[in-house]
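Render this sequence as a predicted structure.
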Amino acid sequence: MSIDITDHLVVNALGVLDNPNVSSSSALVQTSEQLTIDARTLADAHASGVTAINVTLGYTMGDFPPYEHTLREIGTWDSIIRENHEHLVRIDTAEDIAEAKRTGRIGIIYGFQNAAAAEDRPERVATFAGLGVRVIQLTYNQANQIGDGSMAPANRGLTPLGREVVAALNEHRVMVDLSHSGERTCLEAARVSSQPISINHTGCRALVDLPRNKTDEELRLVAERGGFVGIYFMPFLNASGHAGAADVVEHIVHAVNVCGEDHVGIGTDGTITAIDDLDAYQDQLAEQVARRQAAGASAAGERSDTYPFVVDLRGVDQFRKLARLLEERGYSSARIEKILGRNFYTYAKAVWGN
């Protein structure tokens, strides 16, 4: 009998709450990333069975003043949740995830994909934590003051400031996320952190040798330290750039083989609401890729001839389809439950507390 995901926690360790079909000019609610949260966005999220999503807010790249921009976006998300309180709830503790499931609301986890907003002041971590931020990724693809991202050629480890930032994240019980980091930055952060760390959205480099994917050494160390690894639904999962649902399964299987079944989950790096007109989107994609390349923020494997998502694993049925595919692979209901969200919940308890 097929697994019923409505019985389980489903946690997207990095995702997007957005209706990508609405133009920016008609958006009801926008952040700087021009996300649109409308009735369809909320209905699709509910229909998908997702319990909680780690959403990206604050500075990631661009010409914004990082700290001020980040504070504005936190305020924007506070407003979004307040105005949609019957649908959304901010997640501060692991128990909040379970409570979101019980009340039928979508849990929103505040997360950064770049710690640049801390600038040279690690004490700002306390400010961010006090405002509800629960996940801070140290770097994006490029280098910052903390360490090197996956595309930084020097592959430095943590800087002295980076070590201070990790210590501050530990002190204030904020997840240290090593997605997008360079290999040495990831390994050093995992070793110096006093709490388990995570790689919330990645693939396995042993299967596809691209910088955004993590080596077995990185995956294993994160798991050995009690951490969490989320597999994304991204083109980096196939050497051709055209990843499919089968590739997602293969990377999950590899990660489980390396890390053990208690440390692997999902971080799709995408929306729940599907793009309706893929042909029109394809026409826009080249411009998006060029803009990211010009900003120095793109990763190897980002191309205009491939979608930045898995075409056959999107929309409101993406989590149900993944569960079916894992079941067909021979995974038990208990293991699938762990991958869909239970492992993230356990990891959250270890870092945030109940």
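Summary. Strands lie at 11-15, 52-56, 88-90, 106-112, 133-137, 175-177, 198-202, 228-231, 264-266. Residues 24-32 have pLDDT under 50 and may be disordered.
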